[in-house]
Design goal:
Shape of chain B: globular
Distance between the termini of chain A: 36 Å
Number of strands of chain B: 11
Oligomer: heterodimer
Radius of gyration of chain B: 13 Å
Shape of chain A: globular
Number of helices of chain B: 0
Number of helices of chain A: 0
Helix content of chain A: under 10%
Mean pLDDT of chain A: 93
Number of strands of chain A: 11
Strand content of chain B: over 45%
Strand content of chain A: over 45%
Low-confidence stretches of chain B: none
Structural class of chain B: mainly beta
Amino acid sequence: SAVISQKPSRDICQRGTSLTIQCQVDSQVTMMFWYRQQPGQSLTLIATANQGSEATYESGFVIDKFPISRPNLTFSTLTVSNMSPEDSSIYLCSVDTVGVYTFGSGTRLTVV
Amino acid sequence: KNQVEQSPQSLIILEGKNCTLQCNYTVSPFSNLRWYKQDTGRGPVSLTIMTFSENTKSNGRYTATLDADTKQSSLHITASQLSDSASYICVVSGQAGNNRKLIWGLGTSLAVNP
């Protein structure tokens, strides 16, 4: 399965600022997925990122709040914009290789 | 409504003991069911994947069962170790190859004590 390097692993940010999370995959993948895991909750899909096209966002998530870049087949970024304490969560990227979903180690974001 | 429910919510066992975690789902259509292990502060790691036709699948000390008729699955952990302390998440896929159709359970938090 693929190996994903995700960073930062954690950050504490001031409200109103933005944070960009990066994921690097050790192989080329068509789609990359971004998830949010709020405290005590299950994973929620934010968006699907395809290389060369705009990301597809799930209900409740918008591009202005969570802009995504996918410049090539091994890299993607998710930005959490204009943060508020409600954005405090773990953010995870994921790829699907041969039916196995592999996840990054996650970014634990705390907004104060 | 597509749902995945897991029980118990949390569990404490002694090292060396066995335990069984439960997953009930109402997802339709059904493609496959996965069990993930998520250590604190880490991303989920896949343990097993089962399709409609599979009843059981093992991965070391982890054995998953699936009853597609009753829409139930279990994860049995044998001879538990301290490193088994984690959250175990059941995930049901409603459509093969479509990540947007993954329905995630809330997980069972397992603590293995010495």
